[in-house]
Amino acid sequence: MAERIDCAVIGAGVIGLAIARRLAMSGREVVILETEDAFGTHTSARNSEVIHGGIYYATGSLKARLCVAGKQTLYQYCAAHNVNHQRIGKVIVATDETQLAGLKKYQQQGEINGLDDLKWLARDELAALEPEVLGVAGVLSPSTGIIDSHGLMLAYLGDAQLHGASLALKSPVESGRLTGDGIALNVGGDESMTIVCNTVVNSAGLHAQALARKIAGLPPETIPPTYYAIGHYYTLTGATPFRHLIYPVAGRNWLGVHVTLDLGGRCKFGPDFAWIADIDYTFDTHREAAFYEAIRRYYPGLQDGQLQPGYTGIRPKIHSPGTEAPDFMIQGPQDHGVKGLVNLYGMESPGLTSSLAIADYVYDLLAD
Ligand SMILES: Cc1cc2nc3c(=O)[nH]c(=O)nc-3n(C[C@H](O)[C@H](O)[C@H](O)COP(=O)(O)OP(=O)(O)OC[C@H]3O[C@@H](n4cnc5c(N)ncnc54)[C@H](O)[C@@H]3O)c2cc1C
């Protein structure tokens, strides 16, 4: 006979763990099912580790709302739980006059999204703040920061476990079906089994759509298409010349090759953007020349040989090349008609920043 469990959260990335924590802390019985032999080894370990301010996202979108709300609660959470982080601030830089209108738009959109601390920097103010950066103007976002994402996940998991949740590693969910009084999940791995759950949260990241398609009874037309876009990071040898995170004025679907600093003070550049057909983290070293060119537009002091290949991350996309990046797609029973099921699709940036707010949002969807 199948085992009965109250809630299953599928996927132990930063979002799945935040949701598991939220459900467990509300008194629900929770099991986190994870394919890998450790938590947080995919997108949650392959990102910029930036606590985003919430500047770029469309007015009223989930990305804007959950990022701005999530940022506040994340800072409070990190302080209370000793998660290593730093409110280092970021500067978006216009490298020539043609980018000034774009820079102004960022500031306006950030203000619409609720940021009241953005500061326009004239050329001399920018030069005083970041002497190595070339630009005609900038916007300072003081509330942008950096975070140890592994430490954050460990803290979420610890909270969840303290409230009775368990983490089942090497437990890939292979399929599911609606039973009439719950959702049955077939879990593979060494000890394969079937469990029947009142609540299932599909937080499988890059695999969320593939998994949803294997849940018999879930209307397939509610599942978005699957696309992937890879981003590479190069690290800078030697001491960092920057005091803040530095971002260019970039395109529609991507923030541009930017500077992030890690908590050890090391500097990395990335991610770039390329559509790919399959999940493959292989680093393509042919991108080096494009990186030098993009970085030298705002950091002309970059010397040949200073960039070293770092790592890659893959964005879980739900829109095709050439189209505008849509909002997070978080579907509850009201959207697909299946009681007790939430699917999270397209959880790219700013998913890490928004994780606590996403968890509250999912909790509310399930409570409705
Ligand atoms: C290049 C890049 C840079 C980014 N930078 C930032 C940033 O600076 N700031 C920010 O806020 N956000 C950033 N993001 C976004 C952020 O990293 C993601 O939103 C977040 O990590 C997604 O977490 P997740 O839990 O949804 O996915 P994941 O971390 O991918 O976790 C999903 C988990 O599900 C598991 N899984 C998959 N299928 C199954 C199955 N069938 N059964 C069981 N388990 C399964 C996987 O093994 C995985 O562990 C970035 C993203 C990318 C790609």
Provide keyphrases for this structure:
D-Amino Acid Oxidase, Chain A, domain 2; alpha/beta; binds flavin-adenine dinucleotide; nine-stranded mixed sheet; single chain; 368 residues; FAD/NAD(P)-binding domain; 28% helix; five-stranded antiparallel sheet
List the helices and strands and how they pair.
Elements: E1 3-10, H1 14-25, E2 30-33, E3 50-51, H2 62-81, E4 85-86, E5 90-94, H3 100-112, E6 119-122, H4 123-129, E7 137-141, E8 145-147, H5 149-162, E9 166-168, E10 173-178, E11 183-187, E12 193-202, H6 208-213, E13 215-216, E14 227-236, E15 245-248, E16 258-261, E17 267-270, E18 274-276, H7 288-296, E19 307-317, E20 329-331, H8 333-336, E21 341-345, H9 351-367
Parallel strand pairs: 1-2, 1-12, 2-9, 5-15, 10-13, 12-21
Antiparallel strand pairs: 3-8, 4-8, 5-7, 6-7, 10-11, 11-12, 14-17, 14-18, 14-19, 16-17, 20-21
Helix pairs in contact: 1-5, 1-9, 2-9
The structure holds flavin-adenine dinucleotide.
Flavin-adenine dinucleotide is lined by residues 10-16, 33-36, 40-44, 47-50, 52, 172-173, 203-207, 211, 231, 271, 313-315, 347-353.
Describe what this molecule looks like in 3D.
The chain has 368 residues and is of the alpha/beta class. It folds into 2 domains: 3-46 and 150-225 and 325-367, 3-Layer(bba) Sandwich (FAD/NAD(P)-binding domain); 90-142 and 227-317, D-Amino Acid Oxidase, subunit A, domain 2 (D-Amino Acid Oxidase, Chain A, domain 2), CATH 3.30.9. It is built from 9 helices and 21 strands. The protein has helices spanning 14-25, 62-81, 100-112, 123-129, 149-162, 208-213, 288-296, 333-336, 351-367; strands at residues 3-10, 30-33, 50-51, 85-86, 90-94, 119-122, 137-141, 145-147, 166-168, 173-178, 183-187, 193-202, 215-216, 227-236, 245-248, 258-261, 267-270, 274-276, 307-317, 329-331, 341-345. The strands form 4 sheets. Strands 1, 2, 9, 10, 11, 12, 13, 20 and 21 form a 9-stranded mixed β-sheet that branches. Strands 14, 16, 17, 18 and 19 form a 5-stranded antiparallel β-sheet that branches. Helix 1 packs parallel to helix 5, helix 1 (14-25) packs parallel to helix 9 and helix 2 packs across helix 9 (351-367). The model has no long low-confidence stretch (mean pLDDT 96). Residues 10-16, 33-36, 40-44, 47-50, 52, 172-173, 203-207, 211, 231, 271, 313-315, 347-353 line the site of flavin-adenine dinucleotide.
